[in-house]
């Protein structure tokens, strides 16, 4: 029997899909070598039409007409070629050409306009009585590779059709161009053109704005670049050489500026100036596009400790790690060392994940990293720089916030960089950050920089064009200069492209054989390693990297040209995110999807430890591959991982993607679909609450899926367990019995885990239904088969430990029967078990739930102490539900203690909060307490109406645990309002309910009230 390479589950021989995660099994077909290799390029197209060709053909002899066409074609072809374009088709009286194919995509626009004007002038001059009209449009064209490595455009497609339709809008001897082309040209030249307006073209879905070329020369634009400030003042402020304005922190700064403006270069200069006096903590979000929690901070720590990269090898020596960490940060506590080891991925420290719930572990990780850096800042001067902060993940953002809250010592400095519009203004204001806005360089600065980069050989006109196109952006300037150097003398005197994307595409295209390597790297992402690139190089799909080349040599050549740059730990990254995006956009969709699939498979096969630690790496590539067989398993793993890390939004994102993929896989993936639905429901409950429409829909789908499948198995039982919890927490105790019956019907008697989950729900259903003896019997059965080694980690997937669940339920039974000592014993045993298995998120549950048991037993002071302690623990853990539950029980206990502030609006508001998140369990009883409190304050008829409505809800929902007490309180209100008949009737019903369940404490109170009222 084989195993699934994604999740490790056993797979039946011959199965096409994994039943656990839905991964497609078996060999996937590779693309045919060399077949359909294509790239996308931004080009400018022109379509030339000979005006009146039909009349001309009718009037001239055939050989004369043929000579006219031949001359016309020659004029067009020569003019196109002389302006740097390529003729694609000569179709009778029509000529199709493109600009920017072998030169540069955005050089195309101005060259095409000049060629069009030259043709409409040259044709009537050479052929008297004959005119032409031209349409121009810039768009994306699919180009196929020829045998010589050159690219040949595909002459079909929407943008080709648009160009033809635009030509029809021109008058004889006229030229009409699209807004897209005019936008490209306008950045490098002023084109005399009149606005025709919005025009609907045949076959084009939306109107297009067109312009007609007018007489007049093409001129350089006026004021293309403004005079801007330089960097000396910024560096002086950030290094402390000059003071910052009053009221702002002198050593905590946020530097704002657009992409490529030089924020990273300023950080580098600051680091060089302070490097001899400050410890450098250099963080960056640029390689964390998947928002893996704390990735930038953990990556820095790995480097600081001398490791190659994060996450570490899980088998790395724990003692050596501890020694390195304590050398870096003396005085760090044992728990902090353990948390750090777990964060770094050491297998020996992963037991910590069993002791803490996800929200608490997240808080501990953030706090530990903040402690670590704070220790360093207290011990020595530190420069903490965080580049590309606009991409920061939530946990790293929380880390920085916590660090700033503690205060940055005077001799330390913190510098964050971000792009404009990143919505970090409130953060900067809150922490008193000095905000510096980094502006573009002035023309003089750009010229000085151009000379410093070595622009020898460029003529003045070309240098001026590069200066204008750079727009004061240092990165763009470097890229344009590198492009000029590679193109050489063949393009001397020609305009540079007007958009950076097209420039980058031309830059990538100019690398010949290395172009394909760049494209593959772009699919991996902004950052990559040589090893990762080697996994998908030369796969025989037409994007082969010549394996006779040395990969290290080729990467060095690309680095020398400014395409990529080395990163800490021996990796590489594209020198700018736009460069990676431009290269990525050159790959047609089908090939791009195939490459993403290759990357996902290569990561899974070659780096399983990293994938296990950060499964979203594979999941993102899987989603981009659009292959459901890859998406399903990887996204289930990523969704489960984020769920355990309390990243509920990302968990929902991946699980939604998994379910969409599983829907395409059909019946073969039913088991995995149940798993994904169960996880999605859990994520939505914790993110949105029980009552949110998306949560309700998740459980509706889960219930439908479980009902349709009805075949049992671990996935089915797990789904039913979640459905039971949802129905029970919503307060529908009566209908929850249906799910219990279904679980008992389909559970495998030979599978202890399935039986344990069944018995937990049998026990809960019996308790809330008032069948207390049945509840104790279910507990006895569960205790016979519960094994801590096998079942002690179930709480990680189902949210509660089965043994704790039944023991706390038993405590309530014994409380209802007045056995206080047994309640205390079960509380001690439950807390000890929670600590033993690491399910500490259940500590508030034990305290609050067993506090209600003590209240049932009449021990109100002890009950209040337990509930208050449980609420405080819940607040510390961020366990919002149990915090709310604890505050409700404090109000309930206050009612019984006749506190003057008990009940009333506070309790009503708390119960309303429960309703808002879909919690209905115990709500009728709480409403009866609220009604009784109102009656004490003179509520009268209003209180009675609330009582009646609450007891009706008890009957409808089947909630019987506290029903005797609710009816007793209603009887009390009736008696006080002078209605002894209804009071006795309510007391009789209360007594029947108490005797039915065996709740002797309730029975005593009811009998005492009967005696008191006669």
Quick take:
The protein is built from 46 helices and 18 strands. With 1014 residues, it is an alpha/beta fold.
What does this structure look like?
- This protein has 1014 residues and is of the alpha/beta class.
- Among the domains are: 176 residues, Nucleotide cyclase, GGDEF domain (Alpha-Beta Plaits), CATH 3.30.70.1230; 206 residues, P-loop containing nucleotide triphosphate hydrolases (Rossmann fold); 68 residues; 76 residues, Winged helix-like DNA-binding domain superfamily/Winged helix DNA-binding domain (Arc Repressor Mutant, subunit A, Orthogonal Bundle), CATH 1.10.10; 93 residues, Serine Threonine Protein Phosphatase 5, Tetratricopeptide repeat.
- 58% of the residues lie in helices and 10% in strands.
- Strands 3, 4, 5, 6, 7, 8, 9 and 10 form an eight-stranded mixed beta sheet that branches.
- A hairpin with a 5-residue loop joins strand 17 and strand 18.
- The radius of gyration is 36 Å and the shape is elongated.
- About 4% of the residues have low confidence.
- C-alpha Rg, in Å? 36 Å
Strand percentage, roughly?
Answer: 5-15%
Q: Kindly provide the name of the CATH class of the domain at 232-437.
A: Alpha Beta
The 3D shape can be described as elongated
Mean pLDDT: 82
Q: Determine the CATH superfamily of the domain at 232-437.
A: P-loop containing nucleotide triphosphate hydrolases
Quick one: how many beta strands?
Answer: 18
- Examine the secondary-structure arrangement and name the CATH architecture of the domain at 232-437: 3-Layer(aba) Sandwich
Number of helices: 46
Question: Largest sheet at a glance?
Answer: 8 strands, mixed
| CATH topology tier name of the domain at 232-437 | Rossmann fold
Residue windows where pLDDT falls under 50 for at least 5 positions: 19-24, 27-36, 223-229, 488-498, 539-548
């Amino acid at each position: 029997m084989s195993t699934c390479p994604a999740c490790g589950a056993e797979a039946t021989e011959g199965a096409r899909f994994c039943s656990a995660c839905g991964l497609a099994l078996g060999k996937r077909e590779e693309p045919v070598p060399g077949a359909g290799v294509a790239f996308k390029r931004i080009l400018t197209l022109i379509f030339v039409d000979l005006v009146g060709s039909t009349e001309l053909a009718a009037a001239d002899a055939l050989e004369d007409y043929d000579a006219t066409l031949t001359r016309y074609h020659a004029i067009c072809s020569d003019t196109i070629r002389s302006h740097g374009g390529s003729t694609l088709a000569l179709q009778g009286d029509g000529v199709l050409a493109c600009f920017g194919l072998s030169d540069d995509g955005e050089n195309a626009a101005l060259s095409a306009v000049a060629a069009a004007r030259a043709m409409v002038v040259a044709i009537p001059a050479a052929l008297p009585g004959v005119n032409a009209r031209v349409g121009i449009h810039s768009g994306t064209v699919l180009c196929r590779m020829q045998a010589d490595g050159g690219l040949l455009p595909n002459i079909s497609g929407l943008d080709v059709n648009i160009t033809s339709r635009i030509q029809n809008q021109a008058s004889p001897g006229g030229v009409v161009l699209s807004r897209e082309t005019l936008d490209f040209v306008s950045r490098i030249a002023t084109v005399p053109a009149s606005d025709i307006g919005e025009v609907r073209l045949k076959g084009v879905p939306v109107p297009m704005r067109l312009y007609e070329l007018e007489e007049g020369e093409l001129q350089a634009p006026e004021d293309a670049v403004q005079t801007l400030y330089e960097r000396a003042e910024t560096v002086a402020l950030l290094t402390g050489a000059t003071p910052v304005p009053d009221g702002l922190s002198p050593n905590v700064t946020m530097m704002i500026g657009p992409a490529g403006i030089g924020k990273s270069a300023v950080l580098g200069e600051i680091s060089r100036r302070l490097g001899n006096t400050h410890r450098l903590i250099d963080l960056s979000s640029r390689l964390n596009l998947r928002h893996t929690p704390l990735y930038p901070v953990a990556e820095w720590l790995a480097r600081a400790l001398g490791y190659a990269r994060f996450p570490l090898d899980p088998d790395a020596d724990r003692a050596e790690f501890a020694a390195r960490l304590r050398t870096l940060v003396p005085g760090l506590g044992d728990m902090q060392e353990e948390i750090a080891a777990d964060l770094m991925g050491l297998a020996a420290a992963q037991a910590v994940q069993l002791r803490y719930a996800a929200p608490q572990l997240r808080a501990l990780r953030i706090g530990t990293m903040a402690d670590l850096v704070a220790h360093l800042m207290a011990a020595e001067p530190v420069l903490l720089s965080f580049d590309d902060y606009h991409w920061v993940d939530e946990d790293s953002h929380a880390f920085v916030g916590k660090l700033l809250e503690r205060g940055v010592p005077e001799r330390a400095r913190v510098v964050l960089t971000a792009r404009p519009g990143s919505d970090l203004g409130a953060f900067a204001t809150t922490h008193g950050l000095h905000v510096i806005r980094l502006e573009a360089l002035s023309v003089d600065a750009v010229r000085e920089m151009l000379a410093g980069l070595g622009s020898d050989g460029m003529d003045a006109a070309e240098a001026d064009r590069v200066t204008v196109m750079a727009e004061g952006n240092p990165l763009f300037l470097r890229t344009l200069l590198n492009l000029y150097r590679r193109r050489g003398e063949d393009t001397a005197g020609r305009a540079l492209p007007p958009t950076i994307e097209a420039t980058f595409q031309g830059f990538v295209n100019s690398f010949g054989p290395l172009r394909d390597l760049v494209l593959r790297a772009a699919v991996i992402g902004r950052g990559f390693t040589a090893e990762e690139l080697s996994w998908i190089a030369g796969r025989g799909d037409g994007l082969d990297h010549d394996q006779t080349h040395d990969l290290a040599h080729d990467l060095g050549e690309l680095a020398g040209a400014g395409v990529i740059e080395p990163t800490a730990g021996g990796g590489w990254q594209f020198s700018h995110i736009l460069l990676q995006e431009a290269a990525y956009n050159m790959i047609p969709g089908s090939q791009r999807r195939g490459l993403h699939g290759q990357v996902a498979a290569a990561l899974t096969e070659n780096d399983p430890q990293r994938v296990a630690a950060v499964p979203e790496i594979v999941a993102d590539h899987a989603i981009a591959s659009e292959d459901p067989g890859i998406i399903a398993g990887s996204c289930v793993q990523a969704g489960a991982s984020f769920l355990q890390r309390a990243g509920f939004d990302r968990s929902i994102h991946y699980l939604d993607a998994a379910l969409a993929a599983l829907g395409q896989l059909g019946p073969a993936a039913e088991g995995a679909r149940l798993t994904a639905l169960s996880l999605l429901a859990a994520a939505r409950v914790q993110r949105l609450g029980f009552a949110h429409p998306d949560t309700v829909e998740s459980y509706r789908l889960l219930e439908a899926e479980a009902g349709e499948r009805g075949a049992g198995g671990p996935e089915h039982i797990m789904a039913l367990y979640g459905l039971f919890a949802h129905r029970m927490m919503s307060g529908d105790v009566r209908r929850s019995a249906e799910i219990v019956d279904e679980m008992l019907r389909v559970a495998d008697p030979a599978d202890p885990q399935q039986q344990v989950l069944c018995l937990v729900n049998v026990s809960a259903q019996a308790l809330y239904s008032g069948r207390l003896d049945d509840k104790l019997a279910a507990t006895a059965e569960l205790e016979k088969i519960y094994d801590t080694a096998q079942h002690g980690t179930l709480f990680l997937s189902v949210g509660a430990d089965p043994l704790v669940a039944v023991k706390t339920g038993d405590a309530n039974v014994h409380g209802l029967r007045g056995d206080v000592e047994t309640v205390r014993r079960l509380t001690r045993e439950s807390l000890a078990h929670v600590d033993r298995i690491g399910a500490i998120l259940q500590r508030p549950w034990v305290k609050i739930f067993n506090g209600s048991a003590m209240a049932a037993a009449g021990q109100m002071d002890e009950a209040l102490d337990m509930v208050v302690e449980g609420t405080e623990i819940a607040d510390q853990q961020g366990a919002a539900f149990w915090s709310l539950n604890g505050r409700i029980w404090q109000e309930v206990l206050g009612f019984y203690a006749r506190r003057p502030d008990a009940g009333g609006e506070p309790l009503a508001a708390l119960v309303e909060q429960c309703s808002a998140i879909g919690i209905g369990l115990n709500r009728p009883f709480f409403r009866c307490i609220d009604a009784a409190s109102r009656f004490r304050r003179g509520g009268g008829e209003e209180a009675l109406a609330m009582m009646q409505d609450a007891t009706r809800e008890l009957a409808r929902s089947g909630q019987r645990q506290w029903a005797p007490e609710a009816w007793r309180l209603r009887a009390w209100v009736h008696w006080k309002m002078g209605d002894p008949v209804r009071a006795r009737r309510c007391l009789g019903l209360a007594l029947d309910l108490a005797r039915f369940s065996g709740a002797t404490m309730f029975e005593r109170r009811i009998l005492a009230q009967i005696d008191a009222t006669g």
